[in-house]
Automatic annotation (TrEMBL):
It comes from Streptomyces vinaceus. This is Transglutaminase family protein. InterPro entries: Papain-like_cys_pep_sf, Transglutaminase-like. Residues 38-136 form the Transglutaminase-like domain. Gene3D superfamilies: 3.10.620.30. It holds the Pfam family Transglut_core.
Amino acid sequence: MQLIQQTPDLTAYLAEDEVIDHGHPLVQETAEALWLASGDAYSYAKVAFEFVRDTIPHSADSGDPRVSWRASDVLRTRNGICYAKSHALVALLRARSIPAGLCYQLLADDDGSNLAVHGLIALRLPGAANWVRQDPRGNKPGVDAQFSLDAERLAFPVRPELGEVDYPELYAAPHPAPLAALQGSADREELWRNLPPEIGKFPVG
């Protein structure tokens, strides 16, 4: 998919903020350990993806009521929904100077009801011309996301006939709507009520 950068400045996709806190010691330690298990940018990106996908359960699958949103907290608690796991993966990639950003889909139930925004990431390896989406949500029966730089192998290929959408925007920082849902929810039950049904274009300011 052709993604549209929120900002043309590639360094924005390496920046640290309150959410993507890749300067945090736990993020740095995790990145160092994963780098030692890989050794080059491609291998590291794959290992980091699989680490977040497989060792941090999606809280809807695990039943964990806690809500995490900051990348370091996702790594510390080993818990989060799609947005939070995406924050963690972006932080791990940026910790090794791999540009990475956040992107979103609009998904629905099989009958087209209950539209909700799903979060995933895109990365750009050194020397690559294009961004490539990856989905670290976590696999389960019926969901089989894999790291791929060729054909996308996402958790949820969209079904346009049900109103599902791939949003083309690539954000350097989390979109305010999903982030507000995370930060404003005391537990996962409240978070489920607060999930945004859609997102707009690039936030202003």
